[in-house]
Amino acid sequence: xxxSRLRQIINPLGARAAAAFEAALRRIPAxxxxxxxxxxxxxxxxxxxxxxxxxxxxxYTRLPPVGRNxxxxxxxxxxxxxxxxxxxxxxxxxxxxxxxxxxxLAFLNQAYALHSVSNPLHVDLWPSIARYExxxxxxxxxxxxxxxxxxxxxxxxxxxxxxxxMKTYRDWARERLGxxxxxxxxxxxxHAAFDKAAHYFGIRLVRIPVDDGFRADVAAARRALTRxxxxxxxxxxxxxxxxxxxxxxxxxxxxxxxxxxxxDACLGGFVLPWAQRLGYPVPPFDFNVPGVxxxxxxxxxxxxxxxxxxxxxxxxxxxxxxxxxxxADWPGGLYVSPTMAGSRPGALSAAAWAAMVSMxxxxxxxxxxxxxxxxxxxxxGIEAIPELRILGDPLWVIAFTATRxxxxxxxxxxxxxxxxxxxxxxxxxxxxxxTLPHTAPGVADRFIADLRDSVAAVRREPRARGGMxxxxxxxxxxxxxxVIGDLLRRYLxxxxxx
Length: 498
Ligand SMILES: Cc1ncc(COP(=O)(O)O)c(C=O)c1O
Hints:
This protein is of the alpha/beta class and 498 residues long. It has a domain at 112-356: 3-Layer(aba) Sandwich (Aspartate Aminotransferase, domain 2), CATH 3.40.640.10. 48% of the residues lie in helices and 12% in strands. It has 17 helices and 13 strands. The protein has helices spanning 3-10, 15-27, 29-50, 70-89, 102-114, 127-143, 158-177, 193-201, 218-224, 247-257, 272-277, 317-320, 346-383, 407-416, 443-460, 469-475, 481-495, and strands at residues 151-155, 183-187, 204-208, 229-235, 260-264, 294-297, 310-314, 325-327, 335-337, 388-390, 397-402, 422-424, 429-433. The strands form 3 sheets. Strands 1-7-6-5-4-2-3 form a 7-stranded mixed beta sheet, sandwiched between helices. A 4-stranded antiparallel beta sheet has the order 10-11-13-12. The longest helix is centred in the C-terminal third of the chain and has 38 residues, at 346-383. The radius of gyration is 24 Å and the shape is globular. The model has no long low-confidence stretch (mean pLDDT 94).
């Protein structure tokens, strides 16, 4: 059936009915066969780009009968790493690599190597790791206005910090408020990790709209509260548009209702305190705001630690205890663990601690200054391109859209010039998340020059084929949400093919 005809039938049904109709349609064997063929064709097109080394290096689908020579192994690994380094090192990537300086990386690798056998599950064997983790939490809490009582744990990343906060509120509300059907109210812009948490933990996530500046609509939040609401969520800043929700207003709502509010500062926790000190306009967002009960903040982003650590902070130890997992009757012994994993890489915590202590306040302040100055240049450059428009009032995660042109085709043109930017939707947009590699001389100017050229190319040829533009076009249309979900699941299947 033609796509536009299908849309004509489904769109008037409303979102829920349309989804049900689409799901029913997808279960029809003939439709299913046709879709599978189309998924396979689409994925066959992109598979070579996901598996660029397939024909160059031997693929191991079983163990080598005899172990390979270590020098050979390292030589191959070096080749792979060296191919992938220039793109982020030269500042072509949005987010992803936050520091990247070779000396900093070498230092973190040394710290990692010193503790590579450690596992904080065995505190008695490695008390050093417990010490690093306690100090990571304490330093992060102090940075974010935490007074006495503010506490937390180290986790594996922003997603785990968010998952744990949501589980904590669920268990707290069950015990303290008797809530059996928990709901969390979050702006549509809050990270997908909140959907994941809701899915994993049986929580209903109530998404509320944002205002013209892409900040949570406080009146909508108030209307969304019910007797089952266990917590509110705000971002500082949000991943898509880099703007800070009105945390003080949301926290006042939460405080009135005696429920929690989680501030997702995964992206901003290690930037905003320093931005504030540098005189940038930063609204209150941390534990200085009465009512804020938890904050997620990622050491592995602007904390400049290696990938694999984040911090979840709570206002009180009593709240944190709802995060812990205890098994008192297991024949394997008394078992208690603070986070989702059992065994954990203590070396990552050691390296995160080393990153924080080596940066110090001055290091973070200076890094933030460079990032915000570069972001300002980039923002000014985008504003000077008549076809583009900045969304909201961001500091260093700069989202923009196009008037009269397809922004995804501009994204594709930027990709052809080597740029790895983030595509956004609802509304269609693209963002660049500025990190330290962008602050090197010439990078911001190159970004703006390439953006100008990309816009001009799309103006000349607005319907060029290929790239991400058709995929985003399809994802934006109501009848194809389930199809996109199926496609993304098969995409992961391809990622796991050797
Ligand atoms: C605001 C925000 N929250 C949460 C996350 C999830 O963090 P992670 O990818 O470390 O799980 C991100 C990631 O970019 C983010 O920007």
